[in-house]
Amino acid sequence: MSEPLGGQSGAEERRPPVVVVVTLLTAVLTVLLIAFAWPAARSEPRDLPLAVAGPDAAVAQVSAGLERARPGGFEIKAMADRGAAVRSIEDRDVYGAIVLDPQNPEVLTASAGSPAVAQILTQVAAGLAAQNGGVAPKVTDIVPLPKDDPRGAGLAAGALPLVLGGIIGAAALIQLLKKEQNRVPAAITFAVTGALALTAVLQFWLGSLEGNYFANASVIALSIAAISLTLLGLEWLLGVAGLALGGATMMLLGNPLSGLTSAPEMLPTGWGALGQFLPPGAAGTALRSVSFFDGAGSGRPFVVLGCWLVLGLVLCGLGAARDRNRRPAVHGRHEASAVTV
């Protein structure tokens, strides 16, 4: 009976102290809070592209007023007239516009591009009304959100499942498929089927997306594949540490910095730009562009997603090549052992 007790004692000694475990869990909880709460708590316009249409003198006056009200908040782009401002919004060059027409002042928004920015521009309209003796400019939503989801809640809430789809998919395939070479086609297949399902829920059930169903699904599929293949490749090369590193990057950086709930320009300086170079941010921007703006502004996000997809395939290829190089060496050692015997 003494041996089992001794074995249990040894196992207990190898376990980390309670203080270490509690400290580690506290650190993890703190990191999670910072990652998700900090960008939201510091959300405000930072060089937000905004068109101002009208005479040069009036444009300069309004630009100066906006700079005083929100220093560094807007990047003003002067436009000749309302038509040019509308085209700029539809091309996703700006988030909205102020039309300085003495007879019909107007503020143009695009809630499909960012409900948060549209709300800010509506507040700007109220400020302009105060400056103009109470004459409120007309607010026109050039690219509105769907009627079934006027606040964009479904699309914003879909950011987390989109990231988790790639992470959970990679983790599940690693556990269920012991042969690494089978994981790549399985991940691609899962990305397609998962995207079709998620898009169906967002577009046909919640009404959060518009446009072509298969075009929307292709964006989500590309995002899931980019995340899952990158994680599979990291695990193939680095083991569990690689999977943990990739998952933490996508969850703690990619998701909160995606700007899907507001806009990249609403996040702390530099972090919003970083988020657009990670799959969640690129996917969110591409999905808005494809669903509501006929693909305008989706070029760079697709390039980013494509680069991550290629990176994942390269990492998986390196892992497969390393395994192939190991097999002859192991086989050679076995043969040498057999000859010696």
UniProtKB/TrEMBL annotation:
Q: Which UniProt keywords apply?
A: Membrane, Transmembrane, Transmembrane helix
| Ranges that cross the membrane | 18-41, 153-174, 186-207, 213-232, 237-257, 302-321
As given in the record, the signal peptide range reads none
The answer to keyword NAD applying to this record is no
User: In its keyword annotation, does this UniProt entry include Iron-sulfur?
Assistant: no
Q: Which domain of life is it from?
A: Bacteria
**Name the record gives this protein:** ABC transporter permease
